[in-house]
Amino acid sequence: MATLERGITLTPAILWTVGAGILTGVVLSARAIYEAAYAKGLEEGRAEESAKQRAEEAEEEEEEEDVADSEDEAIPANPQDLDAFADRNEECKLVLVVRTDLKMGQGKVAAQCGHATLACYKAMLRYAPDSPVLRRWERAGQMKVALKCTSEEDMQMLQAQALSLGLNAQIIHDAGRTQIAAGSATVLGIGPGPVSVINQVTGQLKLL
């Protein structure tokens, strides 16, 4: 046993009580710190999830706006040229050339590529519905390849070259409600057409 200067004797029971009190205080403090950190983590997690959800909703809304903006803005191909490859029994594809200089978001690019695909398909159905090329492309899985170019001038040159070879070539123009200016040429769709012929136009381009 220990004795203080004032004559208070520190018995084992007193020492145990004091020690237990100190330990309890430490445990309670640690628990309070843990609970505060846990609550803060939950709050930050909810905030991050909420921000992510808002971003996804904004992107979905943007894609829905694109559907209304760019419908039927493609340039019709020459009807006499679309069935020029009926005797070429080779694999067919559709190429989507995206302008990277516009810095479009992923959702925007996906929506514009969808417009270009539909525009090319509708042009083929309108002007060459019985085309063997179109039927081969449909039966073989509708191969699509996304490529990139860096300017509207390059895109227009590619379209002119494709049309000169008798290919279906459609440029999509955006209405400008999100991200980019109204009338911007966003994606060029070429085909469906024989792989070897389309490669004469886009063979030098890099994948998106």
UniProtKB/TrEMBL annotation:
Residues 45-75 are annotated as: Disordered. Its EC number is 3.1.1.29. The chain crosses the membrane at residues 13-34. Gene3D superfamilies: Bit1. Residues 45-56 have a biased composition (Basic and acidic residues). It comes from the Eukaryota. Pfam families: PTH2 (PF01981). It catalyses: an N-acyl-L-alpha-aminoacyl-tRNA + H2O = an N-acyl-L-amino acid + a tRNA + H(+). Keywords: Hydrolase, Membrane, Transmembrane, Transmembrane helix. GO terms for cellular component: cytosol. GO terms for molecular function: peptidyl-tRNA hydrolase activity. Coiled coil: none annotated. InterPro entries: Pep_tRNA_hydro_II_dom_sf, PTH2. Residues 57-74 have a biased composition (Acidic residues). SUPFAM superfamilies: Peptidyl-tRNA hydrolase II (SSF102462). Belongs to the PTH2 family. PANTHER family: PEPTIDYL-TRNA HYDROLASE 2 (PTHR12649), PEPTIDYL-TRNA HYDROLASE 2, MITOCHONDRIAL (PTHR12649:SF11). This is peptidyl-tRNA hydrolase. The lineage of its organism: Eukaryota, Fungi, Dikarya, Ascomycota, Pezizomycotina.
